[in-house]
Design a protein that fits this description.
Blueprint lengths: L10 H15 L3 H21 L3 E2 L8 E2 L6 H16 L2 H18 L2 H11 L6 H9 L8 H16 L4 H14 L9 H14 L16 H27 L16 H26 L16 H4 L1 H20 L5 H13 L2 H20 L1 H15 L5 H14 L6 H18 L4 H14 L8 H10 L8 H8 L3 H18 L13
Antiparallel strand pairs: 1-2
Helix pairs in contact: 2-15, 3-15, 4-9, 4-13, 4-14, 5-7, 5-11, 6-7, 6-8, 6-10, 7-8, 7-20, 8-10, 9-18, 10-22, 11-13, 15-18, 16-18, 17-18, 17-19, 18-19, 19-22
Length: 510
């Protein structure tokens, strides 16, 4: 039997309604950060008046807490407010990636790649193909939640399978596995920028290789495992619960690419592959300026300069595809698309302006160091060190993600405390970021604070006109515990075996 939209209100329904009400009472993230800025000012001033100091383990001298609301603090802020924003790592990296990915997306290249991949999958493999593609989709940023679910529904319907399973399964795997994948996008740039700034609170950060690929091995492996898990849940759990599907008699939209689109994808692939080959050869050549100190490959300018390298790759692919299918007819078209992509990030830029000031105050006032040292000592006294500490961070991020769905806002709140605290416990910033990725993804698909949840509900009603939010959430909830548990286990395997999370990024501090 299919589940219906008209059913008794359950405990889960009440819980989700409570989350929605509480989340709606939270202020805008910008206001939240402004409040935190004011709170930091008061706390730093009170601590400074009390003569508070902090000693970093391994350091010879104590650091005094400095008051923001003092003559010195006001002078520092006036001289550094613009600098704090201009030099905040996530800003430039994210905007650069958004321009390039936006070009590839608006010309149609990314959607064509998705269509081409899903259209070729045999019927039995469809759930797994959808899930694996979805776990790579963060490259498209939030566009993935708009594009992939309806495409998955179409391809399921074309194959005679239940389109609702494709719709909900596609959205679930995009969201619950959002921070996984071999692909690199603006999300990775955002995470590492905040991680770099958070780690810089401690002197131990000097010399650490913190680049956009610090989690690449982990996220790549995770995307394959989570893709198989997602495919299993779609095929063996979700779809059987939906009951048999009766086609409405209307032919499903074809996912097969037009000849011009196939030519565009092929040419774009050839151009990007040739570009990648040139970069790889230039990197591997003995004595190459792209190698690091002493001729090392890790670290090297290639790894620290991955963002501009990816920018060129996306731009080359997007332009090649756009020119081939004539979605780009002039250079003005490309510039307009890139400008529009950045324009859509205006609210993010405003939020990052305030977040940059908060993190800067954390660093300058030494309140951040004090919190990190105290948090590390507390965790150690409770026995929450090593992997147990990482699990604690995952669970905390998972809970907060129900109310603060913005990954940048949540990591800006948690990173400045937990990255340095875990460094003092001997854990590399890369593993803190990896743990946060898990918590930031799993519960995002079931919180009413996720605006794309209501978009998917509207799509669901094209197949089930009486469907309600609770119906959709109950189906999405199928994916949350398995993704959370399995992804945590994957991190546990990396931790137990001491596997690198990315190039030059281990589990423990060097």
């Amino acid at each position: 039997m299919t589940d219906t939209a008209t059913r008794p209100v359950t405990v889960v329904d009440r819980l989700l309604s409570g989350i929605e009400r509480l989340g709606n009472r939270l202020p805008n993230p910008v206001v939240l950060f402004l409040g935190l800025f004011g709170l930091l000012g008061v706390v730093s001033t009170v601590l400074a008046l009390g003569g508070a100091t902090v000693t970093v383990p391994g350091a010879d001298e104590s650091l005094a807490v400095k008051a923001l609301f003092s003559g010195e603090g006001v002078a520092w802020f006036l001289q550094n407010m613009v600098k704090n924003f201009a030099e905040f790592p996530p800003i430039a990296a994210v905007l650069v990636m958004i321009m390039a990915v936006g070009l590839a997306e608006k010309t149609g290249l990314l959607e064509a790649l998705m269509r081409g991949t899903l259209a070729r999958a045999p019927r039995w493999l469809l759930p797994y193909a959808v899930a694996i593609v979805a776990c790579q989709a963060h490259m498209m940023s939030d566009v993935a939640s708009i594009v992939l679910p309806p495409l998955a529904a179409i391809v399921f319907k074309s194959a005679g399978r239940h389109p609702v399973a494709g719709l909900i399964g596609g959205f679930a795997c995009v969201g619950a596995g959002y921070a996984a994948g071999f692909t690199i996008g603006s999300l990775d740039a955002l995470y590492i920028g905040i991680t770099q700034k958070s780690a810089a609170i401690l002197p131990q950060a000097e010399g650490l290789a913190l680049h956009i690929l610090v989690n690449w091995y982990f996220t790549g492996a995770s995307s394959l495992v989570l893709g198989v898990l997602g495919g299993f849940l779609i095929s063996r759990v979700l779809e059987p619960r939906l009951g048999p599907y009766s086609p409405d008699g209307e032919p499903a939209e074809s996912l097969v690419l037009e000849p011009a689109q196939r030519r565009g994808v092929l040419r774009a692939a050839i151009v990007v592959a040739a570009y990648a080959a040139v970069v790889l050869v230039a990197w591997l050549l003995p004595g190459s300026p792209l190698r690091g100190e002493g001729g090392s490959l890790v670290p090297s300018p290639v790894l620290s300069g991955v963002v501009p390298l990816l920018f060129v790759a996306f731009v080359l692919g997007g332009i090649t595809y756009g020119v081939t299918i004539r979605s780009l007819t002039s250079s003005d078209d490309a510039v307009t698309i890139m400008a529009d992509s950045v324009k859509n990030m205006a609210s993010y830029v405003v939020m990052m302006f305030v977040a940059a000031q908060v993190i800067a105050v954390f660093n300058w006032s030494n309140v951040g160091i004090m919190l990190a040292v105290r948090a590390a000592a507390l965790l150690e006294s409770l026995g929450l060190t090593g992997f147990a500490a990482l699990v604690m961070l995952i669970l905390l991020a998972t809970a907060l993600n129900l109310f603060i769905v913005s990954g940048s806002a949540l990591w800006s709140l948690l990173g400045p405390v937990f990255v340095p605290a875990f460094m003092l416990l001997g854990l590399h910033p890369a593993v803190s970021q990896a743990a946060f990725r898990i918590g930031d993804s799993a519960t995002g698909i079931i919180t009413p604070m996720n605006p794309y949840l209501f978009l998917v509900l509207a799509m669901l009603r094209t197949y089930e006109p009486e469907a309600k939010l609770g119906t959709l959430m109950s189906r999405l909830a199928i994916f949350v515990p398995p993704f959370l548990v399995v992804w945590t286990v994957i991190l546990g395997v990396f931790y137990a075996l001491g596997l690198p999370l990315g190039p030059g990024a281990g589990i423990v501090m060097p």
